[in-house]
Amino acid sequence: MSEFSNPSTEQIITLLQQCQRIAVVGLSPKSNRPSHAVARAMQSFGYTIVPVRPAVDSVLGEPAYPDLYAVPGKIDLVDVFRAPEHVDPIVDACIDLHVPALWLQDGVINVAAAQRAQEHGIMVVMDRCIYRDYKQFMPA
User: Fold this and answer.
1) The model's pTM
2) What structural domains and CATH numbers belong to the chain?
3) Which residue, 69, 85, 86, 133, has fewest beta-carbon neighbours within 10 Å?
4) How far is CA 113 from CA 101, 119, 124, in A?
């Protein structure tokens, strides 16, 4: 199995420019959690945030869904705030739903799952923060 490498800076910039609707798996309703702060910031940058978290009705003013299969409409990017051992079923859903891009946040490292997603044509960014990359790469 080959080693995983993230997309180039240019590819990440293109992804951030083109995606509009981000499903955030593991989005916490608690405002002090990193997932909440990152999703709130991405929402403030103009992205539509779709919370994916069981047992929660809504987060950041958006209806929440128990899993990716329950999300209506097209998803441009799945942003994951879950432990690495929970990534495999998320990749399965991304493959089944033809999601074009998957972002595994800081510390979410599952090389085998990331490679499997790539083999199915999904752009994968792993062990990076979407908020930090947005702030670094996108014009103010």
Assistant:
1) 0.96
2) 9-137 (3.40.50.720)
3) 85
4) 13, 10, 10
